[in-house]
Write a structure and sequence with these properties.
Elements lengths: L1 H21 L2 H23 L11
Length: 58
């Protein structure tokens, strides 16, 4: 379970690393919301019918 989350997070950071380096102030405003939405989407796509894990519990 945790391995799956870490893999999804790593894939996301790899895809958006250059973009995040270019965005600073704007990223602070929109980044957290977009990150949570995209993260939930990635987990949903990966796990399909399984429930989305609680992101806040780490």
């Amino acid at each position: 379970m945790r391995e799956l989350i870490m893999r999804a997070m790593h894939e996301r950071s790899s895809m958006t690393q250059n973009i995040y380096h270019k965005q600073t102030c704007i990223s602070c405003c929109f980044g957290s919301l977009n990150h949570i939405q995209h993260f939930a989407f990635v987990v949903t796509e990966t796990r399909q019918a399984e429930p989305i894990p609680n992101i806040r519990s780490k």
